[in-house]
Amino acid sequence: MRRVLRAPLTLLLVALAAFPAAAAPAGHTATRVARDVRAHEEARARVEDLREADAPPGEVRDAERHRRDVRSRLWDLLWAVERALADPVAVDPAGRAGHCPLGPRSTPAPAPFPVLGEGTAWTVPTTGYRLTAGYAERGRRWKHRHTGQDFAVGSGTPVRAVGPGTVRVTTCGDGFGNQVLVRHRDGYFTQYAHLSRIDVRKGQKVRAGQLLGLSGATGNVTGPHLHFEVRITPYIGSAVPPLPWLARKGVHPEQ
Q: What angle do CA 230, 233, 238 make, to 5 degrees?
C-alpha cells in the first residue's frame, strides 16, 4: 500500500475555477483543460504504481511517455490561452517589461539548511508561518476557489525554494503580484506569489532552501502572505493540490 494518500482526483478540477476573471478560458477550453489535468495526474499515479510494482521497464517507459504527451497537450493549450490574454508568465517570464523589483542575486543555501523529512532534499517554502487559505477553499478573494496554499507570514519574510530546480519565471503585474516559478526535476512547477522582492533570475538553478525573494502583499491580496502553488505547467489552470505533492517529497507543513 502507498504510504502517502493521493488527493481525490475530483479536487484537481477546482484549479480551473480559481482563474482570475481576466484569464479564464471559456466553455469548451476550460473543459479540455480540466480533462487534461485529471488525465495527467492519473497517468502520473500509474507510472508510480508501475515502478513500485517493479513492472517491466518497457511498460514503465510507455506509461511515462503517455504522461508526458498529456502534459505537452495541456502545456500547448494553456500557453496559447495565456499568450492571448497577455498573462505575464506567458509574455514576460523574465519580468523585464514589468520592471519587477529584483534584489541581489541569491546564492545556494548554506549547508546544512534545515529540511523536513528524513533523507529528503525538500523543505517548506518559508518559516514562522500559519497555514491559512488552502487548496480548493472558497472565498470572496477568488472568482470561485483557491488554487494553492497560503502561508501567513509578515512582509519581508524569506521565501525559499522547496526543492532543487531551475527558475522558469520571475515576473509581476497580475493578480499574483511579484512571483517566481521554479521547475523541478519531476516536471512540476512551484509558484511563489505576492513577493515584495525577487532575488533570483530566470534560468538560475536553485537548491532546496535557497532564497527566492521576500514575502509581501503585491497583487490581489488583503495582507502579506505567501501564495504557494504546484502546477503541471507554468500556466494558470494546471494547479494540483500542493500539500499532497509536498507529502510525496517527505515534507509536511505544520498546521
A: 65
